[in-house]
């Protein structure tokens, strides 16, 4: 075998060591420092990015906490405002209702109470003698009931401007219409004289 020839073996071993050591020194002086710098830079970047991630997480937690506190304070504030507005509205509604009952609805309330009292009175009267015939009802009780109803009809409240005594309104309308007719006739007579 030519590789194991003793004459050429030394020269082959020499050139092998020469090239091997040459490549080794080139790698040691140029490539290994560059690789070590790259690895150091990479480790440094990884550590800073790790610190950045942790700092970003901390900042994110702070922002989330502040956001939650702002939202909770905003909700509490809006709840308090709604409660205040509701209380104010209830007070306003009570005052307006009381004012309306005292001023505008007073005749209606009186008419309602009057009709309710009249209904209860007539029911109590009917229940006091349920099987009594009209001829057997005592005359004083019958007359008293009749007179109270007549008296109350005259004194009924003027509910919402409705007049219960229509005869007076008809007479008033006749008087005003006759006066208007007289004025028209007198005006036409004056116009004819001119």
From TrEMBL:
Q: List keywords of the entry alphabetically.
A: ATP synthesis, ATP-binding, CF(0), Hydrogen ion transport, Ion transport, Membrane, Mitochondrion, Nucleotide-binding, Translocase, Transmembrane, Transmembrane helix, Transport
**Compositionally biased region (Polar residues):** 184-194
Residue ranges annotated as transmembrane are: 12-32
Coiled-coil stretches, from where to where?
A: none
Which GO biological process entries does UniProt record here?
ATP biosynthetic process; proton transmembrane transport
Q: What is its EC number?
A: 7.1.2.2
Assembly notes:
F-type ATPases have 2 components, CF(1) - the catalytic core - and CF(0) - the membrane proton channel. CF(1) has five subunits: alpha(3), beta(3), gamma(1), delta(1), epsilon(1). CF(0) has three main subunits: a, b and c.
Name this polypeptide is given: H(+)-transporting two-sector ATPase
Species, as recorded: Lobosphaera incisa
Lineage here is: Eukaryota, Viridiplantae, Chlorophyta, core chlorophytes, Trebouxiophyceae
The encoding gene:
atp8
